[in-house]
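Q: Sequence in, structure out?
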Amino acid sequence: MKVLLVATVQSHICQFHKPLCRVPRAHGAEIHVAARDNLAEKNGLKLDFADRVFDLPFSRSPKSKDNLTAYKELKKLIDEGDYDVIHCNTPMGGIVARLASKKARGRGAKVYYTAHGFHFYKGAPKKSWLAFYPIEKLFARFLTDKVITITEEDFKLADKKFACPAYRIHGVGVDAERYHPVSEEERIALKTARGFSPEDEIVLCVGELLPNKNQATAIRMTAELVKTHPHAFLVLAGNGSEKDYMLTLAKRYGISDRVILPGYLTDLEVWQRMADVSVACSIREGLGLNVIEALLSGTPAVASDNRGHRELIKQGENGFLYPVSDDKEMLKYVSLLLSDKEMWKRISLSAPATVVPYTAAEVEKELEAIYFGEENV
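A: Exactly. Output:
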């Protein structure tokens, strides 16, 4: 069996699809990856679990001519590769790969598409429905054998509206051996090892520094938080086009010494164990891997109220939801968690159990059924 994984960038496969690779490999499959090589931007993140990796010039922009070049190269690769399954991910990767797989599908190859959050959803702008829904519906009918969603809302839509079979998995599978709670003594030791003092309070925000991730909300919140919590730090873990704006904003609010931008972290699990609170600010979110990682680590989460976060946050049980871009409501919950130690401890203890279905072991069971279930026999 030969499986080709396609995405816009290689970091997507590295960060999100090790569990996906493990499932067919356990059945003796050969795994290939086709995506643009952006690993240098990710502090040397390695794609070392595939048998072959092809660097294709994908662009996230639908308007980029690079995607036409990527289509031609990918079609040649697929036509000559004799793949049994072409499993595509990301919006542009999914569109280009399914178009390039038409001939291979005609000879019997299966084409799967994992939607990491449809652009059309309840409450989405009308233009998103007009632009993306007809395409996905058309592709599901003529170019896709299975569509896989990572949220219940997307699954219900796909199951009802799309012609091909729809499946729901619980995200991409987070490594529970990597993300897990530690004792208070261990948390303090980790803080001091990285130059913090035991009384310092770390608010961790993980994600690419992009407009949709909306980290400006966390900076505005921190400007008020330090007035009552003078030992608080905001850590914005990630890189991206908004980095300079984040630095400018922190300077504007006079909190440059309270905002840390360490870039892309390859030891993110250590920072999750150190964190007192995890915040997520995104305007739109397919699911929120950063929130799952935080909760598995026993870190209470304060997250913007969008469809991806709503599937994860149980109000008052593992964290809190606040209206998107509302820094005052974010501040209320972050302050509460930092001030009420008993509440923090209760939520920290209960949080990991709420996201067990999203761990790698559980997601691999779901992928096993999709790849090798009875309907595939």
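The CA atoms of residues 71 and 345 lie 51 Å apart.
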